[in-house]
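Re: the 120-residue chain
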Amino acid sequence: MKEFLSITKALSDENRVRVLIYLHGGELCVCELIELLGLAPSTVSKHMAILYQAGLVETRKAGRWVYYRLAGKEASPCALDAIRWVGACAERDAQMAEHVGQVKKVHKMSRSKLCECYRK
């Protein structure tokens, strides 16, 4: 029950659902997520902590930057079901599909230039 409640809490916020949609396209740096969400770095970090605690995302640290990806096959069945459900809904919902287009725009940006903005 605790895991289920943690996942439903993570999915109860539009920004966190958007992050899961973005991550269906592959790993993203925290700077890219900040750019996509248009939120303060501390707010994005809080959202990511909730997704991580729910087992929906995994992290990788490279230098001072953190990279996020969807949880892999070692995740719990409940978390994997939630990830698949969000992905399936994104394919059928026009507004959610727009978020996929936003990721493509950010991928075209230089990651080093984008991250430079958040170094300060």
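Helices lie at 2-10, 14-23, 30-37, 41-53, 77-92, 94-108, 111-116.
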